């Protein structure tokens, strides 16, 4: 026997031994291994051996996605690929045993087969599904069976569907902890409030690009809610809807958008972390600024604040943030926004950490003798312990800013400077900048400067 044939035979034997070894594992471990594979690949394992023949019929996770079918120019409505996908899902659910489904994910387009797709979702519910993730491209919400809203086993529910969501008379979510709604249009105030109040154990609520235009009042009231995300960035269409948040155990709030709807935080004593992104909207600066200030007033007790915020020149209405210790700005700082930043810092008297994640605009003009340095915010001079400056180009304005912080920050412990990734690696320039910052007289002798 040649050496190559012998080597190949050993490889086959080793593979067989591995299959046999894995086959001897308990079903629960095999299910865990298969949970990392796409459903289509899981089914293929049935041909491996007798041991694997029926394992796929009881895997806890099912993931069906027809995205690849409409990634090309194929007419999916009548394509054989679409029919094959429908038949595949139908077969898997028909042959499945009675074991519970841990996670059921379905992403598909709906043509004339809405009843069939609705039956798939009902099948998952009958198998006591704990996590239901639906991304349905449909114009009619009836594709989602009403039994979804009376599924007592659900812990996580995610619905992405660009149409009106119809709330049935009966809703029961005794164990639902996570609710994600994307692109849905809410029908009226009462049904929307009924949906949320029925989630008696809700801890996380995510609303992505949802349409509240029909609503007048959208109340989010929950004793259990801890994390809330609202994203309505794509377009600015001013609405009369008032979103009222009453959640005394809310700890984290994320908002991204132009404040198309007014947001009021009325009872959020536990809120410690907020991520707010409100871009400057030309032509509606005053209206957005008013709504931004109203939102920021509800954040006055936060400890960590991250975002891009625009509040115009409304400093007379600006709240003080007495507990804020960490500030992350996700906007590039320019001449106008630098002055706004210094104004903001005057309302953060105990701030200990500043992170400028986008650095300075290349057109920034700042000097060490500018009048803005005549009144240094008290947080810089007395409390600032850490400064992170990213996207650093070593421009004069950037160097000036870092020098002034080192000059006035009495308790500064570290300054982390991150070079711009697209900047040419001029090693001499980098050494010179480092030396220039290290030799200046610092207010805090303990400060360490790190370049990355």
Q: What is the arithmetic mean of pLDDT?
A: 84
What is the rounded distance between the termini? 59 Å
Oligomer: single chain
Strand order of the largest sheet: 1-2-3-4-6-8-10-12-14-15-16-17-18-19-20
Percent in helix: 25-40%
Instruction: Indicate the low-confidence ranges by residue numbers.
Output: none
Largest sheet: 15 strands, parallel
Beta-strand percentage range:
15-25%
Quick one: how many beta strands? Answer: 20
Helical stretch tally? 11
Rg, Å, rounded: 28 Å
- Which overall shape is indicated by the principal axes computed on the Cα atoms? elongated
Secondary structure class reads alpha/beta
Short description:
28% of the residues lie in helices and 22% in strands.
């Amino acid at each position: 026997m040649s050496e190559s044939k012998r080597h190949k035979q050993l490889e086959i034997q080793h593979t067989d031994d591995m299959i046999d070894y894995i086959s001897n594992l308990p079903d629960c471990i095999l299910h865990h291994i298969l949970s990392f594979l796409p459903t289509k690949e899981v089914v293929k394992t049935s041909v491996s051996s007798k041991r694997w023949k029926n394992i796929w019929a009881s895997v806890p996770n099912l993931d069906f996605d027809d995205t690849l079918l409409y990634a090309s120019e194929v007419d999916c409505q009548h394509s054989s690929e679409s029919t094959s996908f429908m038949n595949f899902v139908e077969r898997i659910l028909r042959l499945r045993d009675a074991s519970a489904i841990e996670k059921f994910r379905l992403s598909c387009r709906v043509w004339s087969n809405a009843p069939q797709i609705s039956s798939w979702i009902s099948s998952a519910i009958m198998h006591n599904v704990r996590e239901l993730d639906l991304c349905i491209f449909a114009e009619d919400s009836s594709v989602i069976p009403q039994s979804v809203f009376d599924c007592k086993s659900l812990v996580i529910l995610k619905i992405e569907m660009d149409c009106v969501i119809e709330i049935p008379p009966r809703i029961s979510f005794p164990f639902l902890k996570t609710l994600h709604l994307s692109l849905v249009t809410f029908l009226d105030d009462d049904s929307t409030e009924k949906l949320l109040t029925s989630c008696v154990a809700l801890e996380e609520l995510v609303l992505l690009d949802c349409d509240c235009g029909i609503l007048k009042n959208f109340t989010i009231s929950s004793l259990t809610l801890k994390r809330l995300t609202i994203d309505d960035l794509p377009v600015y269409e001013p609405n009369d809807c008032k979103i009222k948040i009453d959640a005394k155990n809310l700890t984290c709030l994320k908002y991204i958008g132009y404040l198309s709807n007014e947001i009021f935080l009325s009872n959020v004593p536990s809120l410690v972390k907020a991520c707010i992104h409100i871009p400057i909207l030309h032509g509606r600066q005053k209206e957005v600024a008013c709504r931004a200030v109203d939102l920021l007033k509800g954040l006055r007790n936060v400890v960590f604040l991250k975002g891009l915020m625009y509040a115009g020149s409304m400093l007379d209405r600006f709240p003080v943030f007495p507990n804020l210790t960490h500030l992350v700005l996700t906007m590039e700082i320019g001449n106008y926004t630098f002055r706004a930043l210094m104004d903001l810092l005057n309302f953060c008297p105990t701030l200990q950490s500043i992170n400028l994640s986008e650095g300075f605009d290349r057109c920034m003009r700042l000097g060490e003798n500018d009048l803005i340095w005549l009144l240094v915010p008290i947080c810089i001079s007395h409390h600032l312990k850490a400064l992170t400056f990213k996207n650093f180009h070593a421009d004069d304005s950037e160097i000036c800013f870092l020098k002034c912080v080192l000059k006035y920050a009495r308790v500064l412990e570290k300054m982390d400077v991150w070079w711009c990734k697209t900047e040419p690696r001029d090693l001499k320039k980098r050494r010179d900048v480092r030396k220039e910052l290290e030799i200046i007289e610092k207010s805090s002798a303990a400060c360490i400067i790190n370049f990355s």
